[in-house]
# Entry
Amino acid sequence: MPDRRVLIIDDEPGLAGLLEASLENEGYEVRLAHTGSAGLSQAESGFDGVVLLDLRLPDVEGLDVLQALLQANPSNRIVIMTAHGSIDAAIEATRRGAYDFLTKTDDLAGRVRVSVKNAFRDREMSGRVSELEEEASAREGFRTLVARSPEMTRVFQTLRHAVDSRVTVLIQGESGTGKELVARALHSGGARGAGPFVALNCAGIPDTLLESELFGHERGAFTGAVTAKKGKFELADGGTIFLDEIGEMSLHLQSKILRVLETREVDRLGGSKPVKVDVRIVSATHRDLEQMVAHGEFREDLYYRLAVFPIRLPALRERQGDVPLLVDHFLRGFAKEEGKDITGVEPEVMDCLESHTYPGNVRELENIISRAVVVSSGPRISISDLPRQVLDATRMRRLGVDDDGTGELTPDLSLDRAFELLFRRTDELPSHEQLEAALIRRALRLVEGDVTRAAELLGLSRPTLYRRLERLGGKDAVLAVAEAHG
# Structure
């Protein structure tokens, strides 16, 4: 076990002496430096341990001292101590490699003891494994994330820096990209993996209920509170709490989350004293929190506390090469659940799935494969097992039309070529009646329901078009369909 040396760099002798006495009572060897220069001298002399660093120093910038300490010995763990007015600087220090930061409020000595203890535990854990073993451990922690694309590989590489840290992580990305899976991987792959992982979706929960869910309540706190109840923060003590869709939280509750981050304690509804919690917060959102801050919809101070380590998950359409891997993963899982012996998908199915744009991301692909496994009757998923909307969207993209209906067809695209692109298999061909109905609907839509003009465009007499309209269900029915498709 390495020597437990602590270096305190702070220009307030009274505070430094108080922390020194508190830490020496815990068995640590404590050194003091009241200027940045004195702290740098300690670093140059080979200091190895945990540093308590005040960013507001009289002679040297605290961030420069931080950089020098880490350069001199990367195994040093730096805990920033700061007044409320320099929170932004503390966040920047954390981005540059500081292990933790604490605000100078009441009970600083107690919070310092906890942080120093965790910092030494982090050092010891890092010292027990080689760099290769650390990477293998990180990969194992991300085993639930199925990917091989360069885009997701970069995400994994970034996550490895945060997996064993206490730093708050903000996961951003479109709905369905797997934000909770990433949060679980961060938890299970790190030092808190043996502790609880508690997830809560903040969207669509009324303020009063969400507050009780987060912080708990005492008996009689409100009507219906017949017993005391722990909140999610207490349930996550020693582990990780995942706050999904944090952007949907009201400003009132945002202020309470900020207090938890600053004091590491929660107040139950109806409670008379705060409850200490040791929780890592991982949050997620599909919204642009910076824009919400600009519009006054999200607290700026909370945003910077949550986004110390931001991660952006790419949409599935941006993940080159991951669709076949995900298809295989979901197929094996759902085939086992349904008790079916399905060995794979037909080549045209994979072509279709790889060309789809997935507005619902990985969750949409998962649902597509789940349905296909249920309806499939053969050993492989066929094109007829895919949902109609996926097939239709694929056909339109073959013609150069985007999912939103925009885009232009190739000017010299013949009708024969269009049919060749749209209908590549016999089971994709529409019937004569379906083609006729679609052509009449389109003509009527283009001429805003003028039957005489539509008949001219289609090369039919007016009475003939009326007869065909009758056979198709009447003019009103066809016009209604035309309106719906417009």
Observations:
- The chain has a mean pLDDT of 82.
- The CA atoms of residues 412 and 418 lie 10 Å apart.
- The longest strand covers residues 77-82.
